[in-house]
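This part of the workshop introduces the protein records we will be handling. An example says more than a description, so a record of this kind follows:
>
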Amino acid sequence: MSKHPVRVRFCPSPTGFLHIGGVRTALFNFLFAKRHNGTFILRLEDTDRERFVEAGVGQIVEVLDWLGLRPDEGYWAGEHTGDVGPYIQSERLPKYGEVVQQLVDAGLAYKSIIAPDEFIVLRDAAIAEKRPFVYRRSMEPANGRAGDSGALPIRLDIEAVGKHLGIHEVSWQDEVRGQGSAALSVVDDFILMKADGFPTYNFANIVDDHHMQISHVMRGDEFISSMPKHALLYDALGYDRPVWAHLPVILGNDGSKLSKRHGDTDALQYREKGYLPEALLNFLALLGWNDGTEQEVFTLEEMIEKFSLDRIQKSPAKFDMERLNWLNGVYIREKLTEDEYVKRAERELHAAGVKVGDNLREVVLLERDRIKSFAELPDVVGFFFSQPRPKQSAELATKKLAVDTVKSYIELAIAALAECDDTELAIEQALRDVVGREGIKVGDFFSTIRIGITGRTAAPGLFETIHTLTIKESLVRLRKLNAVL
């Protein structure tokens, strides 16, 4: 643990939309901060101006807001909250210029005059000779680049830093991966400040984390390769190092790299598909972390109470949509009150353009035990509010049965229901009496009625469906089907 108060950050780059892997990183930082009464900071790293996506900024905020991962400090909906901002890197350029000049003045960094095409020639020659390419100050051309000498990138001088620190290799401790190290001979003189005046990620990230007093850095393991550079910069600048923890990679359920086909899409699509934020957070928390028990369903409060760095796994986590669907179903059935469930269901149906009726509550409660996401509801219960098309129902009903048989079944059902009380028990008795009296197959008879009133082969229990629709409405639908047979 760090000797400083816990301050963690989530610092996405708005070069696109926030995906599920980024949300997992935000969640782990959030849980750790809350567990230790610390501060969760949102910082936007927008120095890659060529790939910057304006809409990505709003989407990041919207995702975190939907999931309840609101920062204690940092950027939020156009505002900066905290004493160490601004929290957008493009607004911190003077600070980067000040720090990089300190390194230049100390002889630890230099303006690089090599032209891009000259750099490519050197790199390609190394590749052709099958030797590592590590750029050094000694490889700089003798003559300066044409043009404004001020508009040049600035590189860290690795050999000078090594001499300054008295080291030939750099090492670091990772709370998940353990000890790491790298010889300085394999570390490039990497660029700190680009010619356009914007810092690189490797430089700005360290400067920001120091000046924002970040105690712990939790991020994806794709950044492990940058650790030699980061550790060297901390030491060269005389900054205290944070505690590092690199989170395991998330793979698809088939073991391949996570992609859109596995579910790695714009995180807001999970909201559009009817997933509950509580279920998604529970699912993501278990991608690379567990509390050492068999427990699978956690409230946010339980996750905060139990979260610790020593329970983060090293091995890759697998993104299993079936598990997410199962968890979402559990939350729909068990974690929502009846009123909360009905309210969310109504919102989803309205969003899908379904014109609901007075029986909304009764209808959506019929399917509560079956649905795994609210996005299923319009398709599953839409027939309660809109009559099926008789011709389509007729095609469906006559796939396995002759037209005359279907017609006879519909007429028998109409006759039985027309004389029936509108209770589930009476409806069931009336229809079962027909089966017994006529000696027909119960499955074929009930299936035909179900298609006639719902336009579907799968629906809630037949008797409760008829009761919820009302016998009057059910008869209207059955007679319309009979008319087209």
